[in-house]
Amino acid sequence: MKRRGLIARLTGDKRGVSAVEFALLAPVIIFFYFGLAEFCQGFMAQKRMGHVSAMVADLVAQEEAVTAANLDDFFQIGRLIMKPFSATPLQQRVSSVTQTAGVAKVTWSRGNGGMTKRPLNEVVVLPAGLVVDGESIIVAEVSYDYDSPVDYMLPKVTKFSHMYYLRPRTVDSVTCANC
Question: Where would a tag sit more exposed on the chain, N or C end, judged by fewer CB atoms within 10 A?
Fold first, then answer.
């Protein structure tokens, strides 16, 4: 019986190759899995925040006149849309902006969740061609500070923000007496 050398035996032995490959690849695969899961959570929070801005603008644009209480109810609906994410970092503001002589100014505004209302007659820069003189538009602004529950890939707070513009549907300009 001939004895093979230790090196010859080890190089010829294929047992355990799968275990070594798994040990090398597993950390990378697990890293990608958790990273993708965390990215998807952040993306879902951003999409929900965008839906909040669209919904608030849409609810206001459907009305002929609103009150501060109506707007607070709309903001509360926006907070519900953020579920299952925390609504605490959600900041919302809705404003009516009218353009006169090429300058868009705030007619009324209301804020919620730490975002203050815009001052009356504040000049607002709107996207080019959005409105013409004499037209009014509803501007909904939303900001959300997303803090990942895992803090694996996104260890810091990520700030999402969105603005949504809608024309009033039933009147030329939505009014708010107590805003």
Answer: N
CA 30 to chain CA centroid, Å, is 27
Domain presence at residue 4? no
Look-up of token digits 């969105």:
162
1 is a domain residue: no
- Tens of pLDDT, residues 35-53: 888 889 899 999 999 999 9
Question: What residue ranges of the chain have pLDDT lower than 50?
Answer: 1
Q: How many domains does the chain have?
A: 1
- Torsions phi, psi for 37 (to 5 deg): -60, -40
Tell which residue, 162, 101, 171, has the closest CA to residue 136. 171
Residue 49 lies in a domain: yes
d(C-alpha 101, C-alpha 123), whole Å: 12
Query: Domain residues for 168?
Result: 9-176
The position carrying tokens 């070594």 is 20
Give the list of residues 6+ apart from residue 4 with CB closer than 8 angstroms, or none.
12
Integer CA distances (angstroms), 127 to 102, 124, 131, in order: 12, 10, 9
